[in-house]
Amino acid sequence: MFKPAPEEARLTQAIEIAAAAAPAAADRRGYRREIDGLRAVAVLPVMLFHAGFAAFAGGWLGVDVFFVISGYLITGILARELAEGRFSIARFYERRARRILPALVLVLLACVPFALALMSPPALEGFSASFLATVLSVSNVWFWTVLDYFGPSAEHLPLLHTWTLGVEEQFYLLFPPILALLWRWRRGSPVVPLALLAALSLGLAVWAASRYPSAGFFLLPFRGWELATGALLALAATPGRARGAPAALGLALIVAAIALAPRLPGVAPIVLAVAGSGLVIRYAVPGTAAARLLSHPHSSGSGSSPIPPTSGTSRCWSSPASASATRCRPRRSSRSGASRSSSPGRPGPSSSGRSAAAAPADPRALSPSPRGRSC
Fold first, then answer.
1. Nearest in space to 196 (alpha carbons), one of 240, 242, 232
2. Distance between CA 162 and CA 133 in Å, rounded?
3. Burial grade of 86 (CB within 10 A; 0-12, 13-18, 19 or more)
4. What are the residue ranges of helices labelled H in 261-373?
5. Would you tell me how many other CB atoms lie within 10 Å of the CB of residue 18?
6. What value does the mean pLDDT of the chain take?
7. Could you read off the pLDDT of 225-279 as tens digits, one per residue?
8. Is the distance from CB of 31 to CB of 80 less than 8 angstroms?
9. Would you list the domain boundaries of the chain?
């Protein structure tokens, strides 16, 4: 369902502006440097995946690690504000706008001249539609309707990485008011209903794996359980006691998921990555070897900066840079393209719930279309 071809999909975009979903640096209570180290652990495989290293064909799972981190950090702030009686939905969205918009606007504007210079008119039409969808935080829905994510067309889309931002923004549009309601109803303990919602989302993801894999990849109902897992960890109030074995197991699960992703069915690699992230967040506290490793300056950042140097700007620009480089390369032969479309281990147009006629014959001519989905 979610497995890219090891060699051919190296320039597909599996990471987005996930660091933008982290809370503002000004809110330092409960700050854990090992979480920044976990971000770096997620970023490195993604960058090696983009660089074409076959050993990191599962590096795209970094985005799932980031979903868990995002849910944990954001929910931690919301829970503190609810407990202290100072929660405000307006203030929450204002913080997110200040955190996300500057980097996002800069990336969007920087893409425009390259799109005008390098894209054909049909492709430029598609870029314009993705631009608008990104502004409206629905780019995941738009890409779902027109794209085989792991197909060759994905190499040419500078804004493809924004699909994850769409998932997050849709989640955080609904989650804060739901959490506030559950907080009152459950008197500060919304864990049980939230766990039921997460289980429902995971069930939908498993169900969609063999039926509608493209929808399962891009859309919130099938991704929400990953963010909700992080939220549940935050609602556990405090990290678990220092236990080296579960923390080390968590790191091992993330590594195993990345290494085995091309051979695992359905959502299995995502479950491994999410479970590993949860164990690290829960148990990699000061005193464990995992925490010492993740808190190392080379992993978690240096000096007073709480953001790892690899987890912010470089990932915001990776998708536009890769798409521009791909468009500047000579075209591959049609024989090469045919072998890509039939390569095992990744969803093609037929497996993603779209007919072959819905897939653009020329990825440079990708344009928005109401076709492209039967699910």
1. 232
2. 9
3. exposed
4. 268-283, 289-294, 297-300, 313-328, 334-341
5. 26
6. 75
7. 999 999 999 998 666 566 788 999 999 999 999 999 989 999 999 999 999 999 9
8. no
9. 18-365
